[in-house]
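Full entry
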Amino acid sequence: MNPPASRRTFTRLLRIAAPFRWWMALSALLGFLTIGSSIGLMSTSAWIIASAALHPHISTLNVAIVGVRFFGIARGVFRYLERYVSHETTFRLLARLRVWFFQGIEPLAPARLMEHRSGDLLSRVVADIDTLENFYLRVIGPPVIAVIVGLVMMVFMGAHDIWLAASLVVFHLLAGIGVPLLTRRLSQASAVAMLTTRSELSVALVDGVQGLADLVAYDAQDRQLKHVQALSRGVQRHNRQMARVAALDGALLGLITGSAVLATLLIAIPLVREGRLDGVLLAVLALATMTSFEGVAALPQASQHLDANLAAARRLFELVDATPAVQDPPAPLPVPDWSAAGSGLAFENVRFRYATSDPPALDGVSFKLRPGSTVAVVGASGAGKSTLAHLLLRFWDVDEGRIVLNGHDVRAYAAEDVRALFGVVSQHTHLFNATIRDNLLLARPTARDDEIERALEAAQLHELVAALPDGLGTWIGEQGLALSGGERQRLAIARALLKDAPVLVLDEATANLDPVTERAILDTLQSALAGRTTLLITHRLAGLETAAEILVLDAGRVVERGTLDELLASGGHFRRLWDIQYQALSDAPTGN
C-alpha cells in the first residue's frame, strides 16, 4: 500500500475509534502512571541503597522508604487499572467495528456479496476485525505513552544537566523511532502476506467443511488436505519471520538501553568529580534511565503490527466502500398500500443481465399481477425464473424497462418497504442454527403460538413438530441439517405463511419434496392462498390449475402465456415440457 493510501486508512481507523477517545486518554494516562511508578520505584530504591552506604540517620531515609512502598503498591494498582481500561476500550472498539461492518455490508447483499467467497467474507468478519484489536493496544496507545514518558524524563534529566537530557533523548529516539522503522521495513511484507495467506486458509477450510461429503465421495480429501497444509505452512512461515523480527527488536532494545545507561554514567561521573552532582544521584540517574525505556519498549511491536492492522482495515474498507447494486432514492415514496384502489404489480418490458458479459437473464418480459390472483412462471432451469423474484425484492434493479408497484416504479420506494410486501420461499432458504420457533419468528417476531401452529399446519409440518420432544423449542442445527430436505422446505413455507405478507412468492418452493408430499402441500396451500396474491415460480408443472395466467420462459423471454388448458391445447413449448414430465408416468405399467 502506498503512503497516501496508508495515511487515509489510518485516518479512517482513527475516526472510527474517535467515540472512545476519552477511554483511550484515560488508558494512556494510566499507562504513563504505571511506567512512572516503575521509574519512581527504581530511582527511590537506588537512592536509599546509595544513601544507606553513607550511614545517615534513619530519619533521613524515612521519606524514601515510604516512597518505595508507595511506588511499589501504585505500580501494581496502576498496571491493573491500565489493563482493565485498555481492554475495555479494545472490546468496545471491536464491538463498534463489528456493528459498523455489518451495517456497511448489509446493503450489499446479495448482489455485491456474491462476488466474494464465503470463506473470504468469514475471514474479514472475524479474523480481520480481530486483527484490529491490536490497533489501540499496540498501535495507538504505546506511542502516546512513550511521548509522555520521554518528555517527563527529559525534564528530570535536564534538571541535573542538559547533556544528560540530550543523551537520553538521542537513545530514546533510536529506540522509539529507529528500531520501529527497521522493524516495519523487515516485517512489512510478512505482515501483509500473513493476512492474505490466512484469508486463503479460511476460504479453504470453509470450502472443505461445507463440501466434506463431496470430497469424501470423490476421494479428493487428500488433495484438499494438502492444500490446507500448504496454506498452514505459509501462515507458520510468515509467523516465524515476524517472530525473528520481534527477537531482533528485543536484542536491539537491550543494546540501546545498556548503551543509554553507559552514556548516562559517562556524563554523570565527571559531574560528580567536579562536585556539580551529588554522588548518591549517580545510581538514581542510571536506574531511572534504564527503567524509562519501558516507555518505548512497545514501539517496535507497534510498528510491526501497524501494517497488519492497515492491511486488515483496507480489506474491510474495500468491502464497505463498494457501491450497492440497489440504492434507495433520496426521498422515497410512502410505504405502498397493497389494499388501496388501483394497487397491483406489473413488469413492463423488463430487461436484465447479471454482468455485462453475460447473456440476458430477462429479455423484454411483461406481465401483470393483480391483487388476489395467481400468476405462474414456468420454464427449464436457467430460463430466468428466479431472476423475477430477485428483481421483485430489489436485490438487483432492472437494466431496461421497469417494475411498477401501485402505479409507481419500485425504484421510487425504499427497498425495505418493497420487501415488506413479499413473503418468499426459495429453493435454498437459509435456516439458522436455532429452534424451530426462532426460525419461524424471523418472519414475524410478535406471532403467537396459535398463529405458528396454523402456519405449520398449512405447510404439512405440524405433526412432525408435535412429535418432537421439545416441540417448537427443538434446535434444528446448522443450516437446519437436523431436518430432512423436505422438512426444511416445509419449514420455509411455514415461515413465509406466518409473515402474512400480501404477496407470496414461491420460487421452486416444492422442489425438494417427493411427489406425494408436494401434492399434499399444494392442495393445502390452495386454501391458505385463497384471496392472496401469489407468484408461483417453478419448473415442475404441478398445481397450476388455479393460476389466472401462466408465463412460459425460455432464455429470458416469454415464449407463451395463457391458462393451463389454453397452453396444453396450443401444443407449443409448454406442452412439450408437460409431456416430458408426465411421459414416464403415463407409460408406466399399471400392474403385474
